[in-house]
């Protein structure tokens, strides 16, 4: 539903209970820059396919904890961090692809270089982390504008029910919705016929779907990425309007 939780507060609560803090940032990572130091978490996981990379997992863990974990590994494998967490031959092509995805995102900051005075270029040159921060800030601003357009457009369609925090709240440009009397899978099929890809189901968040009363039919999920355009948002809104009105 695009909700962004107060992770640092949740981590602090975990420590008060003398528990470890494990953060699933798989959906957060494509939209805002992950900062495990600011969160203070013990572990963080994500997946590179969410930020335009291959289907490979990402794990951060505090070094002392990674050293102390009992892990299943091959006897000849090293006992050093992080190699001790690999059960066998590493996914080298996935690792290279994940790095390429990071470089792609950081490279979007180069577009601003054309506007820099040549005499100030040395001062402008940034680290990869700084370039990523610049890019994610711009993408978040753009995503908020697209989300507001999508939210307001869908919110005006009779029979469409939106879930999640409204625009302006801490969130990513992703929404979940249902269309009255049309199962989510059917909405997804009809959108596909119009050249629009949308996913449906409970997205492994079964408890959320149950709490929303959508355990049987699930939800339709729509999200804005770095390449999403205003025209595409408008196409989605008009297509949902036709589906809700029974014209598709």
CATH superfamily heading of the largest domain: Type I PLP-dependent aspartate aminotransferase-like (Major domain)
Element pattern in H and E: HEHEEHHHHEEHEHEH
- N-to-C span: 26 Å
Give the proportion of residues in helices.
Answer: 25-40%
Instruction: Please state the structural category.
Output: alpha+beta
So, CATH architecture of the largest domain? 3-Layer(aba) Sandwich
- Biggest sheet record: 4 strands, antiparallel
Point out poorly predicted stretches: none
CATH topology of the largest domain: Aspartate Aminotransferase, domain 2
Count of the domains:
2
CATH class category name of the largest domain: Alpha Beta
Count of individual beta strands:
7
Strand order of the largest sheet: 4-5-7-6
Nearest-integer average pLDDT: 91
The global form is globular
Please characterize this protein's 3D structure.
β1, α2 and β2 form a beta-alpha-beta unit. The mean pLDDT is 91. The strands form two sheets. Strands 4-5-7-6 form a four-stranded antiparallel beta sheet, covered by helices on one side. The protein is an alpha+beta fold and 248 residues long. Helix content is 40%, strand content 12%. The chain folds into two domains: 7-112, 3-Layer(aba) Sandwich (Aspartate Aminotransferase, domain 2), CATH 3.40.640; 139-244, Aspartate Aminotransferase, domain 1, CATH 3.90.1150.10.
């Amino acid at each position: 539903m695009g909700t962004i939780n107060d992770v640092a507060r949740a981590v602090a609560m975990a420590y008060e209970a003398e528990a470890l803090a494990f953060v699933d940032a798989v959906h957060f990572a494509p939209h805002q820059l992950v900062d495990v130091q600011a969160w203070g978490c013990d572990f963080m996981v994500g997946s590179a396919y969410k930020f335009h990379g291959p289907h490979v997992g990402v794990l951060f863990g505090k070094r002392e904890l990674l050293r102390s974990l009992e892990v299943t590994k091959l006897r000849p494998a090293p006992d050093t961090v992080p190699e001790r967490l690999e059960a066998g031959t590493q996914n080298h092509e996935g690792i290279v692809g994940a790095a390429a995805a990071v470089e792609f995102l950081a490279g979007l900051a180069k577009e601003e270089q054309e506007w820099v005075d040549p005499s100030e270029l040395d001062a402008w040159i940034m680290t990869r982390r700084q370039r990523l921060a610049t890019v994610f800030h711009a993408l978040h601003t753009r995503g908020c504008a697209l989300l507001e357009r999508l939210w307001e457009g869908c919110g005006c369609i009779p029979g469409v029910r939106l879930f999640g925090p409204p625009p302006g709240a801490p969130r990513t440009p992703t929404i979940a919705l249902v269309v009255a009397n049309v199962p989510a899978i059917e909405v997804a099929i009809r959108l596909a016929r119009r050249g629009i890809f949308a996913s449906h189901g409970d997205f492994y968040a079964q408890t959320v779907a149950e709490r929303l009363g959508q355990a049987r039919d699930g939800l339709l999920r729509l999200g804005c990425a770095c390449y999403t355009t205003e025209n595409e948002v408008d196409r989605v809104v008009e297509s949902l309007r036709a589906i809700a009105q029974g014209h598709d």
